[in-house]
Every structure is written in C-alpha cells, then in structure tokens.
C-alpha cells in the first residue's frame, strides 16, 4: 500500500501501532530512527562544501535535536560522527543525520540551511523518513504526528509525503522534495573540480539500504548489555565483516545499547541497537554500491547477526539504476526461518524507486523469542536460533 498526500490537515489514520501493528502503552526507548538526508548541488568553488565545518559547529546544530557527538572518524570522502542518539555523516555536498529516542531532528533543518548558504550550496534533494514509532505518545513536537512533521518541512520546501506499507502494521513514512531540475551549473563546469572520481560519486545518487529490526532474540539482547569487562570502544564481533575492508567506530553505552559507524571508501554504514527485551530493536543502513547478489548476502548476514522476529527492509534506488538493479522481491523467502509478510514497490516523484519488505520469523512466536514487559536481563537464558537461512535469500534482492 502506498498512500500519497500533500498534508493539508490530519491524515486519514493515526499512529498508534507498535512494530507490526500491535498497540502498546508500555514505556521504553524508541529505537526506530528519524532520518534526514539533504543533497546539495556541487560547487566547484567550494570543493570541501559542508566539510568546512568543524565538530564544534555541528554540535551547535545537533543541540537543536537534543543529541551530542561522542566520536568522529574521517576519510578522504566524508566525516563520520557517532552520536548519543545515532549518527551523522557529512560529505562535501550531502548530509545524512539519523536520530532515535525522543530527539527533535527536524529542529535542525533551518540551521543546516544556514550552514549550506555559508558555503554557497544550493539544495538538490531532501528526504525525511522514519518507520512507525513503537511509543508515539512519547515524541515531542513536531515528531508527535506525521502531519506535523510534514507541515514543519513544508514551511521550507515544496515536497510530497508518502506512507509505504500497511498502516495497520509496519510501515514507513517518507517526505521528498526534489529540486534536481534546478541545477545552478552545467556538468562541464562541475568537471572542473580536480578530483573527478570523487566528484562523480558525490553528485551521483547512491542506493540506500535500510534494515529495521524488532524483537531481537534474547541471546542477542544479552550481548549488548555491558559487563565489568566492557570498554566504551570494544568491537562487536561480526560487525566489521558485514562490509569487509571497512573502518568501524563503535561505542557501547551504559548500561546497555550500541552504536557503530563504518567507513568504506565513499560509502558509509551504520548500526544502532536498543537491547531492552520488551522493546528490542536494531537498525542497519548503508549507501554502499553493491551488486544484487552482494546486497542479498548482506541482508542475510544482518538477519543472522541480530536474529529479529520482524524486519522492515527498504531499498531506495535512483531511477537511473532501475533497469540494472531494481529489486524483485519474492513472496516467500526460501529460508528456514523467515518469510515475506508484505511487500510494496513505489516510484516517487523525485525519480526514486523504493522497495519495502516486511520479513517475519516463521518458526518462532513472539512469546518464544521475546521477554515480556517485566522481564529483566539477568533472568535471560541463552537462546538458540537455527542459523539456517538459505542462500536462496539471494532471490530477495536480484536483478
């Protein structure tokens, strides 16, 4: 299902469901993140663009969202910041910010536009998205309602709002404002930048894969609680192997929780884990350009690492990649423990193709996998889950 509307009033539904349509009055940490990506036209006179700003200046912006920088890692292509609530990635001509909990991400937009104007950048594309909340009543304005979020964005942009997936279950909200037809310079002028290879990556939209997982197995939850021996920057086994050759910046929170930013050339990937058993959640995202087979293998690795009971997978593809890399999801995963419950396929007005899948564990019920609201981590017994995902999962994301 795809609901497409320009918000004039309240949308024809309210947001009162949990991870897969279950209403909840429990309290807990809101794992599903708000995500903002803004692309700018490259300016050959300011080749470093947004990277001219230092961590202290980004912290000024992040104060508006009520989160702080924990650490920074950089490479030749972008700056990576692990935050107290999720992640920030800064390219010369692009920013991706995602924040979890009750942060107020959209309060950053005006300041971001001030930053962009200071380095003579013009907006090309804005994408704001999030999965439906588990605890919607805990959110602060404008994130207390999707219509308020859209109205907040429409103060500045002429965009459209979409709801992808069933509104009675797991679904994804996305707002898109596309100004790509308003290029201030020609392609020939852009190619005057010295590092043409770097510029090519920065001005060409990349596919974005997101995996949003609820109901992690109890054994996985336990691993993200600190022990007496846990250090802040300890590496979590298996994370670096998801995209071999990457540099990872990881942080373990107290008493529980985990965040990681990965850098692999011009590509990022990021993981965030909320392990409290009654609201356990993990997310994975990357803009790495992968073959269909490699992307499918990556999905398999992520599911195996976190053992969720449900996963909502989205893949955003620039329309120019449609013919070669569009996802063709199957109705059923040929795997022992997961199946596709829902799938949708949408083309947005910004020439962005989106495929969304709800994947569920077909072998174990939520009661068998997850602790109830009163569960305590010290009572968790090691849980086993067959690692028997078939290689036929390659059919999930194939040419």
Name the helix and strand elements from N-terminus to C-terminus, one letter apiece: EEHEEEEHEHEEHHEHEEEEHEHEEH
Number of strands: 17
Outline, from the CA principal axes? globular
Structural class: alpha+beta
Largest sheet: 9 strands, antiparallel
The percent of residues in helical segments reads 10-25%
Distance linking N and C termini? 23 Å
What integer value in Å does the Rg equal?
20 Å
Mean pLDDT: 79
Query: How much of the polypeptide forms β-strand, as a percent range?
Result: 25-35%
Count up the helices: 9
Low-confidence blocks of residues:
1-14, 322-329, 365-399
Structure characterization notes:
By secondary structure, this protein is α+β, with helices and mostly antiparallel strands. It is 17% helix and 30% strand. It has helices spanning 55-63, 109-118, 146-154, 187-190, 196-203, 218-223, 292-306, 322-325, 366-369, and strands at residues 2-5, 34-40, 69-74, 79-83, 86-91, 94-99, 123-131, 160-164, 172-178, 208-214, 247-252, 258-264, 267-274, 281-286, 310-318, 338-348, 352-361. A hairpin with a 6-residue loop joins β13 (267-274) and β14 (281-286). The longest helix has 15 residues, at 292-306. The two termini are 23 Å apart.
């Amino acid at each position: 299902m795809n609901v497409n509307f320009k918000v004039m009033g309240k949308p024809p539904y309210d947001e009162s469901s949990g991870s897969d349509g279950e209403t909840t009055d429990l309290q807990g940490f809101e794992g599903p993140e708000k995500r903002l990506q803004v692309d700018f036209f490259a300016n050959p006179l300011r080749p470093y663009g947004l990277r001219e700003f230092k961590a202290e200046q980004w912290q000024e912006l992040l104060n508006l969202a009520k989160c702080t920088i924990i650490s920074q890692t950089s490479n030749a292509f972008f700056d990576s910041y692990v935050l107290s609530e999720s992640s920030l990635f800064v390219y010369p001509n692009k920013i991706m910010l995602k924040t979890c909990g009750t942060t107020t991400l959209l309060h950053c937009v005006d300041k971001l536009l001030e930053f962009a104007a200071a380095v003579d950048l013009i907006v090309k594309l804005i994408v704001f998205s999030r999965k439906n909340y588990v605890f919607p009543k805990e959110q602060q304005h404008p994130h207390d309602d999707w219509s308020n979020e859209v109205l907040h964005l429409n103060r500045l942009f002429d965009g459209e709002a979409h709801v992808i997936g069933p509104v009675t279950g797991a679904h994804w909200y996305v707002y898109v404002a596309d100004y790509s037809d308003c290029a201030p310079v020609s392609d020939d002028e852009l190619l005057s930048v010295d590092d043409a290879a770097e510029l090519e990556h920065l001005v060409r939209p990349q596919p974005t894969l997101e995996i949003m997982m609820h109901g992690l197995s109890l054994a996985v939850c336990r691993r993200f609680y600190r022990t007496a021996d846990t250090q802040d920057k300890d590496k979590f086994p298996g994370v670096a192997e998801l995209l071999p050759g990457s540099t990872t910046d990881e942080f373990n929170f107290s008493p529980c929780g985990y965040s990681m930013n990965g850098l692999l050339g011009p590509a990022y990937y990021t993981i965030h884990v909320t392990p409290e058993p009654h609201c356990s959640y993990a997310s994975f995202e990357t803009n790495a350009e992968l073959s269909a087979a490699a992307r499918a293998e990556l999905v398999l690795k992520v599911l195996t690492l976190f053992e969720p009971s449900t996963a909502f997978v989205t893949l955003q593809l620039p329309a120019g990649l449609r013919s070669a890399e569009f996802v063709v999801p199957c109705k059923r995963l040929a795997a022992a423990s997961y199946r596709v419950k829902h799938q949708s396929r949408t083309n947005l007005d910004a020439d962005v193709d989106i495929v969304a899948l709800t994947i569920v564990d077909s072998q174990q019920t939520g009661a068998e996998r997850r602790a109830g609201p009163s569960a305590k981590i010290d009572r968790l017994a090691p849980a086993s889950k067959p690692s028997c995902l078939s290689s036929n999962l390659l059919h999930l994301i194939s040419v």
